[in-house]
Amino acid sequence: MPAGAAVSRALRLGALGCSSIAARRTLPAAAAVAELALTAVAARSPEKAAEFAARFHATATTYDELLERSDVDAVYVSLPTSLHHEWARKALLAGKHVLCEKPLTLNLEQAEDLAGLATKQNLVLRENFTFIHHPQHTRVRDLLDAGRLGDLRTFTASFGIPPLPADDIRYQPSLGGGALLDVGVYPLRAALFLLGPDLRVTGATLRFDEGGVDVAGHALLTSASGVTASLDFGFQHSYRSRYELWGSAAALSLDRAFTPPPGRQPVLRIEEQDHVEEIWLPPAHQFELSLRSFAVAALAGRDDSEAAWLASSVDTARLADDVFSNAAGVADDRTVAR
Length: 338
What we know:
Blueprint: E1 11-16, H1 20-30, E2 36-42, H2 46-56, E3 59-61, H3 63-68, E4 74-77, H4 84-93, E5 97-101, H5 108-121, E6 125-128, H6 135-145, E7 152-160, H7 179-195, E8 199-208, E9 214-223, E10 228-234, E11 240-247, E12 251-255, E13 267-272, E14 275-280, H8 286-300, H9 306-326, E15 327-331, E16 334-336
Parallel strand pairs: 1-2, 1-4, 2-3, 4-5, 5-6, 7-10, 8-15
Antiparallel strand pairs: 7-11, 8-9, 9-10, 11-12, 12-13, 13-14, 15-16
Helix pairs in contact: 1-8, 4-5, 5-9, 7-9
């Protein structure tokens, strides 16, 4: 929808889960999207639901009641990862479009189930990888397609954050915690976006803490055309969010690739043997862009383009499964069985 275009009606959104990402990023961004109207919020705790309802000017309710409400057209799921499949499925069966926080599910089987159900129900199902909606990545792909880097040879990506508080749910395997499903899926999704869907995992390592959750990892992938991808991720690092593409003619790097602040002006740095070029791009609010894209798609009614979004989510789940199945596990510098 063009900027400034009139909105005939807004998609009425219900928030299922009152998570940190919902409070800090998604729901404030939703308030700035004309195509969206938050009508209800639900949480495990009535007190938490009431707090969010007051803050975001919505009605507090329960999980099941939210899915039954006639003033909810779509559901935003920001529950722990282990609950994504169950509640996204219930929402689709209730006839609601679904925007689900990444990762969509715990595994490939669950992702395929939701993708098939969304298709059968003729509903929009999106995995909320907001970074994909930032124009900086489209510009990178355009440069690749135009041959600016020559023949692409390698892709490297890193997403790491400092250790989390000990009680953070991302350290709880039973809730779908772990570095791969939290931060590792970003480099995987970026590889799919830039290299295409024909990727396979050729090797991987995961580091586990004493509680049995993966806290860091590395994966090696290969595309059908022979491009290699080297991906690093974890909870044990200084902050890093970047990727680099290295071709036969030049290399391109991008910092803050996955989590750029809305006001940050991205810089694509292209290095050749005796020349450096910097391409400065306009800032963009990737949360607002993701929400607007979802709302516009749901309001228009599902079309054939949604198949590509579902395929990307299924491919991401497939690669994450393959990383787990290929990974050598290490803990305290010892190899451990998985």
